[in-house]
Amino acid sequence: MLMYRYIGNKAKLTPYILDKVQQMIGDTGTVADIMAGTGTVSLELRKKGYKVVASDVMTYSYHHLNVNLCMKKPPEFLGLKDIITDDSQCMYESVLKYLNCIEPKKSFFYREFSPEGTPRNGTPSRKYFTSENAMRIDAIREKINEWIDDKLINKSEESLLKHTLIMAVNEVANISGTYGYFLSSFKKNSLERLELKPVDFYDDNNEGHVIKLGFAENLAATIKADLCYIDPPYMKRQYAANYHILETIARGDFPDAVGKSGLRDWWDQHSKLCTKTKGLQSFEKIISDMQCSKFLISYSEDGLFTLEQLQECFSKFGNVLVQEIDYNRFRSNDSKLPQKLKEYLISVER
Ligand SMILES: C[S@@+](CC[C@H](N)C(=O)[O-])C[C@H]1O[C@@H](n2cnc3c(N)ncnc32)[C@H](O)[C@@H]1O
Question: Highest taxon of the source (predicted)?
Fold first, then answer.
């Protein structure tokens, strides 16, 4: 699978997480992953044979989860058979070939996120993508919108195409780790041509998973599981701000691009867990509302809350145990933060 640079992505920590899940509930059962992000942990849980209830507040996560949990092969894209007549064995690959070749278009991404664009709010042009790549993204995402409007693709096909487009966009974005801002000059990867590449599929245990979109605080009461894994944001910076461009691709909309960096308005996805004032209350609401008696929480040494604060909060619900893991942190390229860091895996049993 392609590398997904996402703050807090647990790709390197999944072995520890899965060991702990296995210790706590054994080899079978339902695990909730309620801040699922890229879907990395959910996919590993699926591979181990668990049923997964996964959710996140970001729309892109919803599409990643649809692919990671519910697909074992690409859907058939039957609605596009009249448009894409290619003799390749796999319709998904034919669709990608078609989208890779469509005429680039000067539209929203070109105007707001490329150096030749003229942002609507009058700020200087932005350099998230080369003008060529921005035009390709415009053409591809508007074609996907057209297929959705004409009912030529279903929900799974939409998720797979958006997932594939996001993976391709991550490869050519001119950023240092997050989409919070763009770099002043184009770096090597961003000069490459944007290309949709077929993603990998895992061919077992794709039935019975549930995917939801929304705040964990609101969904908790609707979720029943043997264990709930919580991987919250650690910092003040909101995911909705850091990954605004991925959200725009996932939603397929045309929001106002605000300020110099062109962020969409993200207030509807603002997370209380990124605030010192409301974060602990959110944890309490989630744990008390969820139909579940075992929780596993990831947290980082340099997070908003100290380990002691978290322990105090969680001990209201039951027994708390902490495992410490030494970890090389995610850093944006120009970060001066030290590289070594402790990660905590906190288990709570009611
Ligand atoms: C540390 S990341 C999770 C990373 C994930 N485990 C992975 O491997 O990709 C935290 C996630 O929590 C989500 N989030 C933040 N606040 C939330 C809330 N209140 N409810 C649901 N999701 C939330 C963010 O959108 C982000 O994807």
Answer: Bacteria
43 with 64, same domain: the answer is yes
Determine whether the shortest distance from the Cβ of 57 to ligand 1 is under 6 A: yes
Same domain, 229 and 190: no
Cβ–Cβ < 8 Å for 127, 174:
yes
Other Cβ atoms within 10 Å of 171 Cβ, number: 15
- What pLDDT sits at residue 341? 86
Token readout for 330 is 């995610």
Does ligand 1 come within 6 angstroms of the Cβ of 239? yes
User: Does the Cβ of 58 fall within 6 Å of ligand 1?
Assistant: yes
CA of 215 to the centre of ligand 1 (A): 9
Residues in the chain with pLDDT values less than 50: 1
User: Domain for residue 321, yes or no?
Assistant: yes
Question: What pLDDT shows up at residue 329?
Answer: 66
Nearest CA-CA partner of 249 in 149, 167, 152: 167
CA 105 to ligand 1 center in whole angstroms? 33
Please give the residue range of the domain that contains residue 336: 1-69+211-233+271-350
Q: Is 286 in the pocket of ligand 1 (CB under 6 A)?
A: no
Task: For residues 212 and 293, give the distance between their C-alpha atoms in angstroms, rounded to a whole number.
Answer: 20
What is the structure's pLDDT at 340?
79
Q: Round the CA-based radius of gyration of the chain to a whole number and report it.
A: 21
Q: Residue 199 contacts by C-beta under 8 Å, 6 or more apart in sequence?
A: 1, 2, 67, 160, 163, 164, 167
What pLDDT, on the 0 to 100 scale, is given for residue 89?
86
Q: Is residue 169 part of a domain?
A: yes
Q: How far is CA 29 from CA 23, 85, 224, 277, in A?
A: 12, 44, 11, 35
Instruction: Based on the fold, state whether residues 35 and 91 are members of the same structural domain.
Output: no
d(C-alpha 77, C-alpha 162), whole Å = 14
238 falls within a domain: no
- Give the total number of structural domains in the chain: 2
